[in-house]
Amino acid sequence: MKTCFSALLLVLFTLGLISAQNPSNAKPNIIVVLADDVGVGDISKYRRLHNPKIIIETPNIDKLAENGMMFTNAHAPAALCATSRYSIMTGNYNYRSPLPWGVWGGYSKGVFTEETLTLGRLMKNANYNTAFIGKWHLGTGFRDKRNPEEIYNPKSDKDKFSINVDITKIVSDGPMQNGFDYSFNLPSGIQNVPYAAYENDEWYPLNKHSLIGIIDKEYANRHGFTFDKKEGYGDSMWQPSEIGPLIANKAVKFIKDNSNKDKPFFMYYCSQAVHGPHAAPEEIDGIKIKGTTPSKHLDMVKELDVQIKMLVDELKRQGVYENTVFIFTSDNGGLHIDGDTWNARHESSDIYRGCKNDPYEGGSRVPFIVSWPIKIKGQTKSDVPVLGTDILATIAAISETKIEKGQALDSYNLLPFLSQSKRTKSRAHIMLQGGSHKEVMIIKDGWKLIIQVDKKDKTNKTRTPIALFNLNKNIWEHEEFNYINNPKYIKKVKSLLELYSDTRDSGVFTGAHF
Fold it and tell me: Smallest Cα–Cα separation from 72: which of 390, 410, 365, 352?
């Protein structure tokens, strides 16, 4: 009988129906997926909260929400991607960064030191196998051809194509220097130099015929995609439509190779979708993508949804889905750049005003979904305020890992909400950052103050209130009526401005780790 039972277990394990890890007591695997430029209106489960008419379905992302908790008052830390990525990686508000308004290029110097707690370092401390896959966008160091002992500085190179940078190897400031055991990295995603991919810091040729060459507008025209960023070095076989399937398959392989091992895994997967250029693949995972929706933009939304399907399917094949924490969110609000999307009456920002780069709700409102089948009750929603900064403290709590004093100062542990504990207390207020126009925002008790920071004041201490909105009113009136010049609300403006300034200037800890 014992022999038969052992044989049965072996068969079930081989078929992926059970896991080598004991789901009742093993630490869970953790996957964090960061979409690029996806608003709440891009996810059909969120869109249905306010509008039954859906232009594009996202069934796989919807299933995550149905099997877990869906946060309906979630924000990216900033309305632009690189600044948000800093906060998500560190659990700190943007103003704590040496470059609080930085949009790091592929050759920029990073801002993380060896002491900075990052998602990768946190999970290595927790004894996880760690991986970063996708768009980095936090600065990357390459050698200078003129002096291979030096890190290339684009400010010292006036050449149009930055020909003095050696892009064959990442030597600093990438994922592997910041806590990740494995990296498949695009330093600037699909939108900027270098137009190349790197596996464990080494250039990853996209084709057996690949060479290092110049990617310019003429190249883009020949290969059928829009080019609107800097011209420069890249892989001679560069095609942005092939990047999504490439990174998704790398993520699937990582799951396959690291499931059912002695150590759990952590993967931070930063999709290229749906940032421009909008060049969807013909198909991914056997599902046709290109030309199957009303716009090139929405093709990318569909591709993102299939990428999620690929990750979940592999977790199930490996028998580890039930004990895997899956967090899905976006780096900023949705896009308003494709006329075909607009003509189809799809609204990436859903009912909210504005879009990416705006200080309005549409610039920072994002989907935020957490699935953990053996722990989180499905079909649950929460309207507590949530930020991308909260990911770090949350996975620290899940992995039972201590955050040292002075780290992740603005990260709020969401585990009590996920477990629906009665002893939960949400943050008293949230502080956000806008985009390139340098606005900051504070929201407390449903009142939102937008503050203009003087662009010439590098200390950011010149702060002028420019808008006050009551988010408690009818949802359709969000940010429609600006009360900034209404004498009735002078005290409200003053108190919110003082709260923002006192919090920021004092450097006070605003998170709640445990």
Answer: 365
Residue 168 CA: distances (Å) to CA of 120, 140, 205, 208, 332: 24, 12, 10, 15, 31
Summarised one tens digit per residue, pLDDT across range 77-98 is: 999 999 999 999 999 999 999 9
| 157: Cβ contacts below 8 Å, ≥ 6 apart | 163, 164, 165
DSSP state string for 240-290 = GGGHHHHHHHHHHHHHHHHTTSSS-EEEEEE--TTSSS----SEETTEE-T
pTM given for the model:
0.94
Q: Which of 338, 336, 388 is nearest to 119 (CA)?
A: 388
Residues pairing with 219 in the sheet = none
pLDDT at 104: 83
Supply 135's token pair. 């768009």
Cα torsion 176, 270, 88, 335: sign:
positive
| Strands, sheet with 165-166, edge to edge from the N-terminal-most edge strand | 147-151, 143-144, 165-166
pLDDT number for residue 13: 45
Say if residue 194 is preceded by a cis peptide, omega within 30 of 0.
Answer: yes
Alpha-carbon span 86 to 104, nearest angstrom: 10
